[in-house]
Amino acid sequence: MKALIETRLAEAFAPSRLSVVDESHLHAGHAGWREGGETHFRIEVVSDAFAGKSRVERHRLVNAALAEAFARGLHALAIKAEAPGA
């Protein structure tokens, strides 16, 4: 799942910085969690594609880029999406 997320974000945004961290272990027993993890991720992505966009617009773009990951079982995503210099 992590590789899929990294690939889709790289393809969609050509980021200058990208961090994808699996935080599933922090959510054991909570909604959407499953054995083996890969359900809850924290991402930080910096891309020119986010310039001039509101926080909500940036999050919508990220969620759209990760539609396949959500379809495959991604449950929750903490997003920090910024333009360079922000």
Descriptive account of the structure:
- By secondary structure, the chain is α+β, with helices and mostly antiparallel strands.
- The protein contains 3 helices and 3 strands.
- The protein has helices at residues 2-13, 55-65, 67-71; strands at 17-22, 40-46, 76-82.
- The chain has a 3-stranded mixed beta sheet with strand order 1-2-3.
Q: Can you summarize this structure?
A:
The chain is α+β, with helices and mostly antiparallel strands. 33% of the residues lie in helices and 23% in strands.
What number is the mean pLDDT? Answer: 89
Strand order of the largest sheet: 1-2-3
What's the main sheet like? 3 strands, mixed
Query: How many DSSP-defined strands?
Result: 3
What kind of assembly state do the chains in view correspond to? single chain
Global geometry: globular
Work out the helicity level.
Answer: 25-40%
Give the uncertain stretches in residue-range form: none
Alpha plus pi helix count: 3
How far is it from the N-terminal to the C-terminal residue, by CA? 28 Å
The topology string of helices and strands comes to HEEHHE
The radius of gyration over CA amounts to: 13 Å
Q: How large a portion of the residues is in β-strands, by DSSP E?
A: 15-25%
Which descriptors apply to this entry?
86 residues, globular, single chain, alpha+beta, three-stranded mixed beta sheet, 3 strands
